[in-house]
Amino acid sequence: GVKSTGCIPIHVNGTHWGALEFDDCTHGRKWDPIEKDTILSAANVVSSALERNAFQEEKRQLELVALAERERKVEEMNLLLKTANNVLQSAFNFSGPRPEIEGIPELIAMEMYKVSKASLLAWYDVTPDLKYIKVRFRIRDGVFAGPEDNEPAYMREVFSTDLLPYFRDWFQGDQFMFMGPNQDKLWPDSYEWHTTNGRVEATAYPLKLGDQPLGVFGFGFNDMRNVEELKEDVIRALSNQYALAVQLSRLAALAKQEAELSATVEERARIARELHDHIAHGFVGVIMQLQAAQLLKDLQLEKAQECVQRALDLAREGVQSARRAVLALQSSEDSKVSLKHALESLVGSVETAGPSQVQFSIFGEDVQPRSVLAENLLAMVKESLMNALKHAQAQKIYLELFNQEDHFILQVRDDGMGFDLASAAGSGGLGHLSMRKRAERIGATLNIHSALKQGTTVSVQVSKQQMDRL
Question: Under a CB-based contact definition with an 8 Å cutoff, are residues 188 and 154 in contact?
Answer without folding.
Answer: yes
